[in-house]
Task: inverse folding
């Protein structure tokens, strides 16, 4: 890459001056430079670099967007985990309440059965007392 850069700088000097002064020669000499070809090559290289830069910018932009989306997704997952934990706690609380209500209902039903048996017994005793007397 470094040699190519030096070569491009050399061609740029040729393009701008149009004349090369040779070392160890007393008189300058001119070298015909194909300016158009040099300009076309420079334009082609510039456009290629521009396309590559555009592609790199697009990649970086997409990478940045993806990173933001990943961060948002992580936040959403964390939020869902919190909500799920909250729902699990509520479900456990409801199960405990339901179990407590069921136990109390059974106890109340047993008490009512006992009271009904006592009432029958009392009613039967009263009925026998009335019949006797």
Result:
């Amino acid at each position: 890459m470094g040699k190519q850069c030096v070569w491009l700088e050399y061609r740029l000097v040729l393009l701008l001056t149009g004349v090369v002064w040779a070392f160890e020669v007393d008189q300058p000499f001119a070298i015909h430079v194909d300016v158009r070809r040099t300009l076309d090559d420079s334009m082609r290289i510039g456009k290629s670099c521009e396309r590559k830069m555009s592609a790199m910018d697009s990649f970086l932009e997409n990478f940045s967007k993806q990173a933001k989306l990943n961060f948002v997704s992580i936040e959403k997952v964390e939020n869902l985990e919190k909500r799920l934990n909250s729902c699990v706690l509520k479900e456990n609380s409801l199960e405990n309440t339901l179990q407590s209500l069921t136990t109390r209902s059974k106890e109340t039903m047993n008490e009512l059965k006992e009271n009904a048996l006592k009432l029958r017994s009392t009613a039967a005793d009263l009925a026998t007392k009335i019949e006797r007397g």
